[in-house]
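Box 3.1. Reading complex inputs
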Amino acid sequence: MKLSTRIRSIVEGGSDGWEVWYRARDLRDAGHDITMLTLGDHDRLTPEVLIEAMAAAARSGHTGYKPMAGMAELRAAVAARVAARSGAACSPEEVIIVPGGQAGLFAALTAVLDQGETCLYFDPGYITYPGTIRAVGGLPLAVPARPENGFQPQRADLDVALDRAKGPVRALLINSPNNPTGAVYSRETIAMLADFAREHDLWLLSDEVYDGQVWEGEHLSPRFLPGMAERVLLINSLSKAQVMTGWRLGWVAGPAEAVARMTDLSISTTYGVPGFIQMAALAAVTRGGALEAELAATYHRRRDIGIRALAGSNAVRVSPPQGAMYLMLDIRATGMSGTDFALALLEAERIAVMPGESFGPSAAGHVRVALTVEDRRLEAALRKLGEFAARAAEAGGPLDARSR
Ligand code: PLP
C-alpha cells in the first residue's frame, strides 16, 4: 500500500544521519566496549528527589487525563521561568506543556507553516530540524553558519537564502546555545536575527533547550527584544537542564492564540502529558538552578579536558564551544569526510562520534563529540582520536582501519 508523500519525505535521501550511532550500538550490543560520544544524553541519572516526586504523584492519584495544555501549577511555574530567563513577561496562558522539546518543535512548526512554506534554519544544526519541517509539510532551507565566524549566523547568508527560497518564507528556526557547534549567540547576533524576522515578518522559533549550559557569554532569548514576544515561539524542555531526557517534558511559550491552537494539536496527537510526569517537572522547575549550574560546570570542565587532550594534535582543530555539551572537531587535515572518519575511528578504536555531515553540509570534515563520559575516559578517548587523526593525515587520506 502506498504511504503518504509527507511521511516518506521526513527522511530525505534514505539517510537520517544516525548511521554511525546505529553501528556503534550494534557493536556494543554484540559485547564490544565502545566509548559512546554520540548522543547528548547525560552520564548520570535523574535526581532521586524528582523520581520520588513522580512516584508520590502517581500514588496520590495523578494517573488520569490532564488538561491538554498542561496542569495549571506547572504552566504557571514554567511561565515564571520563561519570564525570568527571557526577560519578558509571560503568563500561564502563553505556555503549553508538551512531551519534550522535540514535540514542541513539531507543535511550533505546525502552528506557523502552511503546506509548502519555507522555514529557514542554520547549518550545521540539530539533526531533526529538516525532517521535522518536512513532517509538517514545510520546506526546510538551510542557511550556513560558518566555522570561520565561530558558527555565528551572518545577515548576508540570510539574505542570500531569502533570494533562493521557492515560495513564501514564514519562519526562522534558531538554536542558542547551539547543538552541534556549542556557539552561544552574541547580543549582536540575536539583535540581527530579530531585525531580520521583523523586516520580513517571520515567526522566530527559538530552541533554547541548552539555556542553562552556558560557559562563556550569556544566554539571550530573542523574546526579550522590543516587539518580539508576539512573533517568538520559545521551545524548551527539562531534558538537558534537569537530566530528564527520557521523561519527555517540554514546553512552547508564545502568544496566547498560538498556544490555544497548539492545544488543538495536542488534542489530536498526544492528548496531553501524564500528570505524574508533570508533577515531577513542577518539582524540577521550582527547585531552582543548582543542578543546572552543576551540569554546566561538568561540561565546562570536560570541554577544557578535551581541548587539552587535543592540543598537541596537528590533524584536529577544536572550535572552542561556549555552551551546550559538545565539542566540534575539524578533521579536514586528514582528508577524510566526517562520516568516513567516524566509521573508521569506530572500527579501529571503538570510539563513537557523530559525523559533522549529520548536522548539515557546513559541518563536512568535522565530527561532534558529546562530553557525556567521565573525565578520564573522555581524555583517553580524545587522545586516541587525535593520534588516529594524525596517522590518517600522515597517510595522506583515508586510513584503512584494518591496516593498523
Ligand atoms: N533541540 C536541540 C537543539 C537538541 O539538541 C535536542 C536534543 O538533543 C532537542 C531539541 C530535543 O530535546 P528533547 O529531549 O526535549 O525532545
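In summary: The CA atoms of residues 392 and 399 lie 5 Å apart.
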